[in-house]
């Protein structure tokens, strides 16, 4: 279990992590999501004792990382920009790690097999693709057979088979009762991998909830509507609080109004409706809603490209 209490990290004037408290439970995959620069890597680095908190504490199984006698057996971490000697082979890199942590050689063979590194194990790491580097990082994280896994963007650079492999690995480790904390930018992947979500924006926790609660719990209802007269319906339901997307001819998505209000507005104007379907939020939709005001680096819409969403104000 990972427990953070009032955890903060400042770099000069920049507050990267701002007084966050959370618990990452064993037996589950917990996804860690947030826009670029939100504080995910800094939080993970503090969990692993690589950055010192400015305030607050974070423990793994009741102790700060540095206070564990055999940390590699306790916590396995894949963090960005892991330093690996480029002239070393993958096998020798793992052997050096194992030797300094009292891990037997047979475990090296096991993790090489587990991560599909076999054919590349005797090659120099300097020539590795990003995906092979990720597999080596995951092999290193698994080396001590730890109870807690912290994986920062583990699927970066992996091919579809590799992405699926990470998903099955994470789910398998959690099923064994381990704590699995994993960050990713791939929403669709996170939606099928994680049981629980922690969303961070500008250093603060925006959501800490089971996956199905996050995807079900949008503040605004989202209804698919088919009608013979889309223009009349847009006029009937339009207001500053209602967002309307034109999906195809006679096919709309109305956000911010319950189905009954749409039906009543249509009935009072004798507009025929042929479909009225409440939508389940995708994780991506839920995430976009949660982080709408929290983006540190925002993309600009080119001025001459019409906005995708027509707001009827
Ligand atoms: N060593 C550092 N010195 C100064 N600022 C830093 C340092 N490390 C991180 N930051 C800043 O802290 C903030 C959080 O960075 P962090 O890398 O934790 O975000 P992230 O959520 O992992 O982002 P990404 O998704 O882009 O990897 C950013 O504004 C970043 O520029």
Automatic annotation (TrEMBL):
<dbReference type="InterPro" id="IPR003593">
    <property type="entry name" value="AAA+_ATPase"/>
</dbReference>
<keyword id="KW-0813">Transport</keyword>
<dbReference type="InterPro" id="IPR027417">
    <property type="entry name" value="P-loop_NTPase"/>
</dbReference>
<keyword id="KW-0067">ATP-binding</keyword>
<keyword id="KW-0547">Nucleotide-binding</keyword>
<protein>
    <submittedName>
        <fullName>ABC transporter ATP-binding protein</fullName>
    </submittedName>
</protein>
<feature type="domain" description="ABC transporter">
    <location>
        <begin position="2"/>
        <end position="227"/>
    </location>
</feature>
<comment type="similarity">
    <text>Belongs to the ABC transporter superfamily.</text>
</comment>
<dbReference type="GO" id="GO:0016887">
    <property type="term" value="F:ATP hydrolysis activity"/>
</dbReference>
<dbReference type="Pfam" id="PF00005">
    <property type="entry name" value="ABC_tran"/>
</dbReference>
<dbReference type="GO" id="GO:0005524">
    <property type="term" value="F:ATP binding"/>
</dbReference>
<dbReference type="InterPro" id="IPR003439">
    <property type="entry name" value="ABC_transporter-like_ATP-bd"/>
</dbReference>
């Amino acid at each position: 279990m990972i427990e953070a209490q009032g955890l903060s990290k400042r770099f000069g004037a920049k507050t990267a992590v701002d007084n966050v408290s959370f618990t990452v439970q064993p037996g589950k995959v917990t996804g860690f999501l947030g826009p670029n620069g939100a504080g995910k890597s800094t939080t993970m680095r503090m969990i692993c004792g690589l950055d010192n908190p400015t305030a607050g504490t974070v423990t793994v199984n009741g102790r700060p990382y540095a206070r564990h006698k055999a940390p590699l057996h306790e916590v396995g971490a894949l963090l960005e920009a892991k330093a690996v000697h480029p002239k070393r082979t993958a096998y020798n890199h793992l052997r050096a790690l194992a030797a300094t942590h009292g891990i037997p050689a047979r475990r090296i063979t096991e993790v090489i097999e587990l991560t599909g590194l076999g054919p590349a194990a005797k090659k120099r790491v300097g020539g590795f693709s990003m995906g092979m580097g990720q597999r080596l990082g995951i092999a290193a994280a698994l080396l001590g057979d730890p109870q807690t896994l912290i994986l920062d963007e583990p699927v970066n650079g992996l091919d579809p088979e590799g992405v699926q492999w990470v998903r099955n690995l994470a789910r398998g480790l959690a099923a064994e009762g381990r704590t699995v904390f994993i960050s990713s930018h791939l929403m669709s992947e996170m939606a099928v991998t994680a049981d629980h979500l922690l969303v961070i924006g500008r250093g603060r926790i925006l959501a800490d909830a089971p996956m199905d609660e996050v995807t079900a719990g949008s503040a605004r209802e989202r209804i698919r509507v088919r009608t013979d007269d889309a223009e009349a319906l847009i006029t009937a339901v339009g207001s500053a609080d209602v967002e309307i997307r034109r999906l195809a001819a006679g096919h709309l998505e109305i956000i911010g109004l319950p189905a009954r209000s749409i039906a009543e507005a249509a009935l009072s104007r004798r507009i025929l409706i042929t479909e009225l379907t409440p939508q389940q939020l995708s994780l991506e939709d839920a995430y976009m809603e949660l982080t709408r005001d929290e983006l540190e680096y925002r993309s600009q819409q080119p001025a001459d490209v019409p906005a995708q969403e027509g707001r009827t104000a």
